[in-house]
């Protein structure tokens, strides 16, 4: 979920409550807060905790609220994990430490220490394209032995490797790459953690619902209709936060800059076309 800000750049908790409630009403089983799309590098620890409390209050006890707590500092990450637990989160999204590019033994130790910091389940966020370090399959197998490391947000873009780990470990794999939502689900994935779902939650849900119903052709068709918007939002050279907020409204925090007029117009055209297709589908 994006983190709404007001015109002065402050945290807009009323808008966050409204967005969270709408996303759940339109098919999201849960919400990930304070992730990359939530602009976590530019929000304070206090803002992160306030956002969790506001969203927890807005959606009630049913939908899962997962808090992004990952940083490049193990001690800070563990502290954010404890704060998230206190604020009412149901689980933790923990990204691989970035920039320092620790070796695999250090990556493993980081995740284990964070998992031991609270009683909450942990989703490992494997995104080597951003962090510079992959959680190697052997490391992931060892992490899976920890009782609270239960899931992976998978942005490794290695479908073969992910399929093997799903089969071998029992970890719940969630696609973090929009183009792999359906392919990963088809080989045993649990679902997705989606930026595009900020603006098209019903359609993303419909793809997996069709697959669950045995309508694989329908799932493929619904997924194909999503691809123009997915490509514009996630492969246009702009962060997904920027493209999502171009459709939802509201500012981004620097160093990010808002989408230009031409980009925003193209996004709206693709989004409106998808909404028309959804109306025909319904």
Automatic annotation (TrEMBL):
Pathway(s) where this gene product acts: Amino-acid biosynthesis; L-lysine biosynthesis via DAP pathway; (S)-tetrahydrodipicolinate from L-aspartate: step 3/4
Swiss-Prot/TrEMBL site (Part of a proton relay during catalysis) positions: 36, 99
Keyword rRNA-binding applies: no
Enzyme class: lyase
Swiss-Prot/TrEMBL keywords: Amino-acid biosynthesis, Cytoplasm, Diaminopimelate biosynthesis, Lyase, Lysine biosynthesis, Schiff base
GO cellular component terms, A-Z: cytosol
One family name in Pfam for this protein: DHDPS
GO biological process: diaminopimelate biosynthetic process; lysine biosynthetic process via diaminopimelate
Positions with a binding annotation for pyruvate: 37, 193
InterPro entries: Aldolase_TIM (IPR013785), DapA (IPR005263), DapA-like (IPR002220), Schiff_base-form_aldolases_AS (IPR020625), Schiff_base-form_aldolases_CS (IPR020624)
Compartment list: Cytoplasm
One MF annotation (Gene Ontology) recorded for this entry: 4-hydroxy-tetrahydrodipicolinate synthase activity
Top-rank taxon: Bacteria
Active-site residues from the entry: 125, 153
Record-listed E.C. numbers: 4.3.3.7
Subunit composition and interactions: Homotetramer; dimer of dimers.
Function: Catalyzes the condensation of (S)-aspartate-beta-semialdehyde [(S)-ASA] and pyruvate to 4-hydroxy-tetrahydrodipicolinate (HTPA).
Stated name of the protein: 4-hydroxy-tetrahydrodipicolinate synthase
Organism (species): Streptomyces vietnamensis
